[in-house]
Write a structure and sequence with these properties.
By secondary structure, this protein is of the alpha/beta class. About 40% of the residues lie in helices and about 20% in strands. It is built from ten helices and 13 strands. The longest helix has 20 residues, at about 225-240.
């Protein structure tokens, strides 16, 4: 599809894909054909890195923060805000992003003075986590980090509580789906997770976006909606600054852009990188809803 858009339809830029697996594949095509691509939601470092050299791709950008930054922020939040001295980790070892986030959380948590009490894995499709959770319970951590997709989290949370785990549950941006509250119920009450956008954001841009989105669609925007809006805004501003609808001029304008004020925060780009430095929103599951808990700046 990416090749068709670039070669046949001759687009100036692509917004998306969102998932990292798709964004990585499309990004390889965009880079080889010298077409700008901005992924709103892909947090994997592979998306904006050359698969051979490891250097930053010249034409691929993102509107979200990366997995390493997210894992570091969550470890820091666990240590500094939650006061955790020890943590356990349970993740899907067959999936790239959860595996990377688990390793990066362990690295950052221990570097900050914390102890990893247990480091357990499961495989995609597993529904019984009791053996891993029993080991985690016996280790007695303050926090249980679950870099898991929202489809897995409710079942893990239910089994964790039945097993006797009292630790605060902590998750990644992959938790951000309201189905998680319905499926997890009281077992997820008091848990925290990272997100890319909060309707509590105080900037005029964010407040206006939330009001306009509600008026048009009759429901509040989620993080994907907000990030996609910012990805489009990033391209629009670069096109305006370049003064022409040309792939090369657009890429040059994006690489020169050092700051962009979006609805998901202020983007700051390091020269030579398509990865923005931006704030992370921490949400809490409270009274059967998502509540804003903290904003962590880069």
């Amino acid at each position: 599809v990416a090749q068709q858009l670039i070669v046949r339809d001759k687009v100036v830029a692509m917004v998306g894909p969102n998932s990292s697996a798709c964004a990585f594949a499309a990004g390889e095509i965009a880079e080889s054909l010298k077409c700008v691509m901005v992924s709103p939601w892909s947090t994997s470092t592979r998306t904006t890195r050359d698969s051979s050299s490891g250097a930053s791709k010249r034409h691929v950008f993102r509107a979200c923060y990366t997995d390493p930054f997210q894992a570091h922020v969550l470890a820091k939040f666990a240590l500094d805000t939650l006061g955790a001295k020890s943590a356990a980790v349970l993740y899907d070892k067959t999936s790239e992003e959860p595996s990377a986030q688990a390793a990066l959380f362990r690295e950052s948590f221990t570097a900050g003075g914390g102890k990893i009490a247990a480091f357990e894995t499961y495989k995609a499709g597993d529904r019984d986590f009791t053996a891993q959770l029993a080991a985690i319970r016996d280790a007695g951590p303050d926090v249980l980090f679950l870099p898991a997709y929202f489809t897995d989290v409710p079942q893990i949370a239910k089994q964790a509580r039945r097993t006797g785990i009292k630790a605060t549950l902590l998750g990644s941006d992959a938790w951000n789906a309201r189905d998680i509250i319905r499926a997890g119920g009281p077992d997820l009450e008091g848990s925290y997770f990272a997100n890319h956008f909060s309707m509590h954001a105080a900037t005029p841009e964010a407040r206006r976006f939330v009001a306009d989105y509600n008026a048009k669609f009759g429901q509040p925007p989620d993080d994907v909606a907000a990030l996609t809006y910012d990805a489009c805004g990033l391209i629009a501003e670069a096109l305006e600054k370049s003064g022409k609808s040309d792939r090369g001029a657009l890429r040059e304008a994006l690489t020169r852009m050092r700051e962009f004020k979006g609805v998901t925060g202020t983007f700051r780009f390091v020269p030579g990188s398509g990865d923005p430095l931006k704030s992370v929103e921490i949400l809490r599951i409270k009274d059967g809803d998502f509540a804003w808990a903290a904003e962590v700046q880069p």
